[in-house]
């Protein structure tokens, strides 16, 4: 009997053992490496600092994980790849969705995944996927190539250009209480003005707001339709709990079971209103995009 009890306890301990994560990748971006927040992971509701292990364990139980990035920061894409690998070691991944893929690329993605799973990955994934040049392949390539080899689907989460132009010309009525408040829309409008350096005519602002929110609504719809556990990779503004996709998930009846992680350059502010977790990384050199636009 004593032997049987010892065996039972041993089996129980084995079942409770969790996969130990590998060390996260070293910083790539050149700035912010001496910042006190570099590498810090914070649970924003409590202010508690988490280890990479604790973060992965928390994200592993969420049906939908939304990861916000700064598009040009290579550290963010390296951490996304690391997260995908570590989460898959904890439990089977259901799907990966990307803002950087449009629906008109989905057939190409499906074909490339089928070929990769059959041991014949595309020689040139950039060309095979008709990857859009505005998304820098040098920072996305490793992540996308990895995703093509996985058993779970890689899915488009954005609108096609033709769909965006249709929204711009004829703004659809956005339904829901969370995403349509005056505060949400005013904040989004202010961000659109700033991100376009104040150069957009005011008459275009309602159409630009409609495009932003319809993109967020599409990402929410695609997340809800995707096999779970699902991960969405998108710009940090898109995944914000107080402005983006999570509000649309709430409006569509899927407000629970979502975890938001924002990857932010050290020194930037991320609050509990906008995310559940923040991971501070090294920073890219600042660029004056407005000066470039004005030229």
Whole-number total of structural domains: 1
Strand content: 5-15%
Task: Specify the CATH architecture.
Answer: 3-Layer(aba) Sandwich
Q: From N to C, what is the helix and strand string? A: HEEHEHEHHHEHHHEHHEEH
The first-level CATH class name: Alpha Beta
Shape: globular
The number of distinct β-strands equals 8
- Poorly predicted runs are 1-16
Mean pLDDT over the full residue set: 93
Major β-sheet profile: 8 strands, mixed
CATH topology: Rossmann fold
Distance between the termini: 83 Å
Strand order of the largest sheet: 2-1-8-7-3-6-4-5
Radius of gyration computed on alpha carbons: 21 Å
For this entry, give a set of tags.
295 residues, alpha/beta, Rossmann fold, eight-stranded mixed beta sheet, 12 helices, 44% helix, disordered N terminus
What does this structure look like?
The protein has 295 residues and is an alpha/beta fold. It has a single domain (54-294), classed as 3-Layer(aba) Sandwich (Rossmann fold), CATH 3.40.50. 44% of the residues lie in helices and 13% in strands. It has twelve helices and eight strands. The chain has an eight-stranded mixed sheet, with helices on both faces. A hairpin with a 4-residue loop joins strand 1 (41-43) and strand 2 (48-50). Helix 9 packs across helix 11. The protein is globular and about 55 Å long. The N and C termini lie far apart (83 Å).
